[in-house]
Amino acid sequence: MNSEVTMVRIYLHEADHGKRRTLMEEILKLLAHQNHVQGVIVFRGIAGLGDSGEVLAADMLRLNVDLPLVIEFFDEPEVAEIVLGALDGMVPKGHIITWRATRR
Predict the structure, then answer these.
(1) pLDDT at position 62 over 90
(2) Do residues 12 and 94 make contact, with C-beta atoms less than 8 angstroms apart?
(3) If phi over 0 gives left and psi between -120 and 50 gives alpha, with beta otherwise, what is residue 42?
(4) pTM of the predicted protein model
(5) Rounded to whole angstroms, how far apart are CA atoms 39 and 62?
(6) Who has the most CB within 10 Å: 10, 21, 62, 65?
C-alpha cells in the first residue's frame, strides 16, 4: 500500500542550543514525545561549512569541533505541517527543507 508522506530535513550544528539543552535534543524530544513522528534519524557530518564559510571538520588536532548535523524525518503531510509549525522559531530560517515522497 503506497501513501504520500512529507520528508523533512533540518540542518544544524552540534553547538546549536535551544532553551534548556542542545537544539538537536529539543527537536528530537518534540518529534518523539509530542508528535510521535515516523522515520526519525540524525546524521553527524565529518565536515561542513559554517554560516561564515569557515570549514568545520573533525580531525585529531581539534578537540572542540562544531560538526554539522542533519535531522531527517517523514510522516503524513498533516502531521509534518504540525511539526513544521512547532519548529518555526526554534530552527534558523532557511535550515529546513521539505519534499513529497511515496512510502512503499
Answers:
(1) no
(2) no
(3) beta
(4) 0.87
(5) 33
(6) 10
